[in-house]
Amino acid sequence: MNSLFSTIRPENKPIAVASLFIMVILLIGTAYTLSVQGSAPLLSPNYLLQQLQTGSFLGIVAAGMMMVILLGHIDLSVPWTLTASAMMAASVGGDMALPTGIAVGLAVGLVNGLGIAYLRIPSMIFTLGVDSVLRGLMVAHTGGFAPQDQATPLMRFLAAERLLGIPVAIFVWAFVSVCVALILTRTSFGRSVYATGNREGAAFLSGIRTRMVIIGAFMVSGVCAAIAGVLLAGYSAKAYQGMGLPYLLPAIAAVVLGGTRILGGQGRYVGTLVGVVLIVLLNSVLSIMQMPEAGRQIIYGAVLIGMLLVYGRGARVAS
Amino acid sequence: MSDKTSAGMPIIELRGISKSFSGARALKEVDFSCRSGSTHAILGENGAGKSTLIKIMSGVLQPYSGEMRLNGQQVRFRSPSEAARAGIVCIFQELSLMPDLTVADNISISDPPRRFGLIDGRAQRHRAEALLARIRCEDVNPNTLVRDLSLSRRQMVEIAKALGMAPRVLILDEATSALTSRDVETVYGLLGELKAENVASLFISHRMHEVERLCDTLSVFRNGSHVDTFMKGERSPAEIVRMMIGRDVEAHFPQKPAPRDTAPYFEIDSLTWENRLKGINLTVGRGEIVGLGGLDGQGQKELLLALFGVLRGVGGEIRAAGTPISPSSPHAAKTGKTRIALVPEDRKTEGLMLPMSIADNLLAASFDRVSSGPFIDSGKEKAAVEEGIRKLQIKVNKATDAVATLSGGNQQKVVIAKWLMTEPDVILLNDPTRGIDVGTKQEIYKLMRELADEGKAILFYSTDYAELVGCCDRVAVMYDGTITTELKGSAINEEAIVAASLNINTQSAA
Amino acid sequence: MESFKNALAASIRQSRAFYGAVALLVIIYLVYNILHPHGFSSAVLVQNANEMAAIAFLAMAQTVPVLLGGLDLSVGAVMTLTSCIASELVHGSPATILFGMVMTLLSGTAFGLLNGIIVVYGRLQPIIVTLATGAIAIGLALFIRPKPGGEIDADLNWAVTNSLRDLVETYHLFNPDAGWFAPVAWIPVPLLALLAVAVLVWIPFRKSVTGRTVYAIGSAEGAAYMSGLPINRAKIAAFALAGFFAACGGLYLAIQTSSGNADVMQAGAYTLNSIAAVVLGGTSLLGGIGGAIASLVGACILRVISFYFRIVSIDPLLQPLIEGLVLLAAVSLGALRTLRVKNNLDLFR
Known about the structure:
The complex is a heterotrimer of chains A (319), B (510) and C (349). Chain A has 319 residues and is mostly helical. Chain A contains 14 helices and 2 strands; from the N terminus they run αααααααββααααααα. In chain C, helix 10 crosses helix 11 (209-219) and helix 14 (264-280) packs across helix 15 (292-311).
C-alpha cells in the first residue's frame, strides 16, 4: 500500500486519495442501505446516473471555478451570475434563451476580469461586489417576486431529458469538461493560466498578456456559471431567487479536494471531476441516511479537513 | 565561557557535517572551523554547499549529521533564533526584512524593548537610531516603512538589525552585492571594527577583489566538500579559481572582435521617464555588445525596463532599423517587428515560475510559437524544449522536473534559453551573472559573443566592471539618469569606468 | 514638535487608506444626520450603534487572520454558533448570566483556537480550513438550536442595547441623573462595548510581541521565520483572537435579538460583509497592513450606507443594487492609484 502510494506523483496523490474515498463512501452507503432497507440503490447504475445528473450543475460550476483558482483568484459572483443567467434566459425565452443566458455569463466574467486585471482589486472583494450588484439588478428586474417565466423546451431537454438512457445534463457536463481539460493542457491560454497563477510578475515579463489571461479565466468561470444556471432552470422548470447560492462553497471545496492549490498555479482537471463526484456521492449517502442538516454540515466540514490532512501538508515556510 | 576565548582560538567548529536534500548530498562529511577575530571567506561555485553550510550554522536547516561546537561546547540549533541567542547571526542574501513594518520595528523584531510586557515604541526608535548611526545611515528615518526604502538601504537596515543582536559570529551571505560603493566602504570599516572586538566574520562573496581586500582566511568548497583552508596570500588567484571549479580556466573572456564602427540598428533618442531617466541617447548596432556601467541605481535598470515596455509614461523615441517603435508591454516588445528580449534582474521572482517544470519555463515566452491554431503541438513543444536545453547545455535530469531543482547557474540558463526561443533581434540583459558560479558565467560570456556574431544587438548591464571590460564593444556609463561617458575599444578599462561612474570629470558638489 | 509633525505626516502617508476611510465615515455620517428628518438625536445614535455592533465585532474578528495574509471564512458561523450558545445560557441569576457570557466568549475563542491549531499543525491554507470548520460551526449551532428561539435576560437586553444612562438605571449603579454623568449619559452602550474591546484587547495585542509577529508574518513570512519570531504561536493566537471577537459579536447579537438563530444564509452574509468591511477600512488582503480599528471604521461605513435608504426616497427594490454599486465604487476608488503606477512591475508586488 505504502509503496504503491509513493510511486504516485505528488500532484496526482490528492486524486488517488479522493478516488479511494469515493469507494469508501459507496461501501459505507451500501452497507447502510443493505442493513436497513435490504437493498443497494447506490450500486444501481440508474440511481448513480440520477445523482450525477444533479451533480452536473455543480460539476460545471466547479470547472469554471477551477480556472479562476488556478490563477490564485476566486469567483464569489458565481451564485448570482448563475441566477441572473437563468432568469434572463427564462425571461427572454424562445430561441434566444440559451444565447442570452450565456451572454450574461460572458458579460459578468468580463466585468470581473476588467476590475481584477486592470484595477487590481482583490478578486475576493470585487467579485463579491459584482455578486451584490447582480442580486440588486435581479431584484429590480423581478420586482422581488418569484419570476413567472418558464424554462424553454430546449433548456428542459438539456437538463431533464435522457438521450440513449443517459441524462443529457451529463453530456453537457462532459462537453464542458472536455473543453476545460483541453484548454488547460493543450492551449497556450491554458499554459499561460498556470504560469500567471504561479508568478504573475515573471509571466508578465515573459511577454504573456497576463491581463488577458485573467479576463479570459473569469469569462470562462462566468460562462460555466451561466450554463449551470440555464440547466438548473431547465431542471426545475423555472429560475428562482437564490438558486445559485448552494453551489458556491461546494464548487470551491470540489476544486480543492481535487488537489488544486488554492493559491494558484497547480492542479489537474481530473482532480476537480473526482472532487465533484465525491461531494455528490457524499451528499446522496447522507440523504439516504436521512441525516439532519446539522449532522450533514459537520460531516462536510470534517471530511474536507480530514481529506486535506491526508493529502499531505504544505511545505514548511519556503522563502 | 566567552572571556576565555581569545583571538586565534576556534570559536565555531564543525565536524563531519553531512546534509542531503531528497537524495542529493549537499554537504559531505565537512570539517570546518573559524577563529574568533578572523575575517573568513568561504569560496565556491554555486552548488558547492556554501549556503547549506551557513544555514546549518545559523539554525535554518535541520536535521543534519555530524556535530557543531561553539566555544568548545557541543550545540545543535533548532531555529535561527536559537543560533542568534548563542551569538551566531546571519545576514542572508534574500532579505529577511518585513516590508510593511517600519525600520525601527524591523531592527528590533526578534527582541523588542518592552515596558509592562508591551513593546516600547520610543525605546525601540532610539535603539534603531543608535544602530543606524553606527553604520553611517543617519539619513534613514526609523519610522519609514521598509518597503519605501531602496534595495541598498534595505540591505543596510539588515546589517543594523544583525548588529543589534550582538553577534560573536557574523555571517554575511553576499551581503554587499546590493550596496552602493559608499555603503560598501562603510561595511568594510565595520568589519574592521568587529575584528577588533574579536567577532568572527564569515564572508561569502563572488567578488574576488572584495575577498582579497577584506579576509585574512579563505576556505574553498566544491561539490559539498571542504577543499582547503589557507591564509590570504598563500595561493594565487588562479590557483584559487582552479580549486573552486576543479579544472583549469583558460581565458576568462572570449576574444573580442577588433574595434570597428557598426551602423546603428537600435537607437534610443532622448528617452525620459519620471525623474529617473533624463534624456538617454544611445545606439546599439547589430553584432555589437554595448555595456551599461555606473554605480548601481543610476537608471540602468529603468532604461532596460523602459525599452521592454514595462514602464508607463516613457518620453523620447526608440527606433529600430530606422523605424520608430514604442513597445507598450513585454508582449508587444517580444512580438513586434523588431523582437526584444529581456533577461530580468531577479531570476527567482521575475525570470522563472519556480514550481513549474523546466519545459514550461523554457516555453513561457513562446507558447504561440509551438502552437498550431489554438492548440499546442506536442511535437514542436518537445523539439523546442530539447533544442533549448541542448543549445545552452543546461544540466537537467528530466525536462518535467521543477525548475526550482536546478542550481542557480542552470536556472539562469533556462531564463536565457527561454528568450532565445523567441529569436530576438535585441537582447537586454540585466546583470545576468549576478550570484552565479564562475563556470556558468564564462559560458554566458561566450554565448553573448556568439549571439552578437549572429547579428543580434545586445545591451548588457552589469555591476561587475571586469565583465564590462571583458565582454563589451562599447560601454556607456550612467550617472543620475543620464549617460555621462561612452568608452570604446582600448579606452574600456576598469579605471575609466570607475572614474566615469563617480562622475569625477564633471562632479561639482554632491 | 517638529518631529511630532513629521511622525504624523509619515503616519498619514503610510496609512492613507485608513485616514481616507475615517474621513469618508465622518462625511457620510454627517450628511446622513443632516438629511435625517429629525436631525441628530441620542435615540438615532443608539439605534445606529445597535445596528453596527455585530458587524463591527465581526469585522474586527476578520481583521486578525487577514493581517496574517489569510482569511477566516468561519467568523460568521462562529458568531452564529456563539449566539445560539448565549441564547441557552445567558439568563437566570446574575451569577449564571455572567457565567453564561464568559462561557459564550470562551467557546468562540476555543473554536478560533481550533482553527489556528489546524492551520498551523495541519499546514493547510486558512481559507479552506475555515471554510470547513465554518460548516462544522453551523452544524453545531443547528444542533443547539434547530429552530430560532432561546432566552436572554430582559434587563441585560435593555441595558446593553440602549444608552449608558439606561444601563446605569437598569442596574441601579448610581443616580443616573447626577450632574457629572450627564455629558456621557447619552453614549450608546454598544459603542462603548466596541471601544472597550478595541482598547482593552486589540491595542495590547497589537503592541505585544505576538501581535507584532502577526504583522511580520503577513508582511513576509520567510523573513519572519528567519528573524526567529514565534510564528506558530502568533498564527494560533490570531485565529483564537478572531474567535473571541466573533464570540463578542455572537453574544451581542443574542442579547440584541433576545434569541439565537442558526441561520446558514445569515452566517454566510455576515462573513462576506466582514471581508468587505475589512477592505473598506484599508486593511490589505495580502496581509501586514491595517488593523482592527480600521475595520471597525470600515464596518461603520458599510452600515451607514444602508441607513441612507431609510431617509432618502429610493425604491426599496433598488436597495441591494445600490449597496453593491457603492461597495464596488468604494473599492475601485481605492484602486485608482494602480492606474497611476508608472512601473508595471510594481503591480505584482
